[in-house]
Amino acid sequence: MENLLNEVKFDDKGIVVAVAQDYITNEVLMVAYMNKESLEITLNEKRACYYSRSRQSLWRKGETSGHWQNLKGLYYDCDADAILMKVEQIGNACHTGAYSCFFNKVFEDNVTDQAILNRLYNQIIDRRDNPKEGSYTNYLFDKGLDKILKKVGEETSEVIIGAKNKNKDELVYEMCDLIYHSMVLMVSEGVTMDDLKAELTKRHK
């Protein structure tokens, strides 16, 4: 670690730009700054810690919001003047409530959102932790496991009907409903996306 701290080129104020990227989807989540101390804390604790230029103090991502960034990898660029972190984003990265800070679209060439499942899962977690009046997700959590299981069963039946009807649009619609309710069940029972990926990886080695 000492070698890294010596290699990184901090500017005349002792800070370096740091980019946080979702380690699964590679989506850029946010850009912030680090000084030597925050970089050292990040590496030691395996959780993102930044340096606030406005407050001139350290801030651990998620210490007030609960939206942590668990460190999965850390790199510096060819000029050693920028840090890239691969992180597991718990909740949302942006203070506005968006998953990524980069939600202001200027141009997009018909690109499918590759991170949509992670976004949905994180939004469900956010609804559980920060209930909103009128939220259907909160309604399901309030009603409890039996209600959630009933909805999963109902949506499974709808998927079967859509398939039997040979109607692709209907099938896609109902499968999305099933995925959503299954994710609510996952959050309710503490199952993570990584749990599913680990099991699928084990099956297909």
UniProtKB/TrEMBL annotation:
Annotated region (Phosphoribosyl-AMP cyclohydrolase), positions in chain: 1-116
UniProt keywords, alphabetically: Amino-acid biosynthesis, ATP-binding, Cytoplasm, Histidine biosynthesis, Hydrolase, Multifunctional enzyme, Nucleotide-binding
Region annotated Phosphoribosyl-ATP pyrophosphohydrolase, chain positions: 117-205
EC number assigned by the record: 3.5.4.19, 3.6.1.31
Main location group: cytoplasm
TM annotation in the entry: none
Any one GO CC term of the record: cytoplasm
Enzyme class: hydrolase
Start and end residues of each Phosphoribosyl-AMP cyclohydrolase domain: 30-103
GO molecular function, one term: phosphoribosyl-AMP cyclohydrolase activity
Superkingdom of source: Bacteria
Gene Ontology terms describing biological process: L-histidine biosynthetic process
Compartments, as annotated in UniProt: Cytoplasm
One Pfam family it belongs to: PRA-PH
Reactions mediated catalytically: 1-(5-phospho-beta-D-ribosyl)-5'-AMP + H2O = 1-(5-phospho-beta-D-ribosyl)-5-[(5-phospho-beta-D-ribosylamino)methylideneamino]imidazole-4-carboxamide; 1-(5-phospho-beta-D-ribosyl)-ATP + H2O = 1-(5-phospho-beta-D-ribosyl)-5'-AMP + diphosphate + H(+)
Pathway: Amino-acid biosynthesis; L-histidine biosynthesis; L-histidine from 5-phospho-alpha-D-ribose 1-diphosphate: step 2/9; Amino-acid biosynthesis; L-histidine biosynthesis; L-histidine from 5-phospho-alpha-D-ribose 1-diphosphate: step 3/9
Sequence similarity: In the N-terminal section; belongs to the PRA-CH family. In the C-terminal section; belongs to the PRA-PH family.
UniProt protein name: Histidine biosynthesis bifunctional protein HisIE
Gene source species: Sedimentibacter saalensis
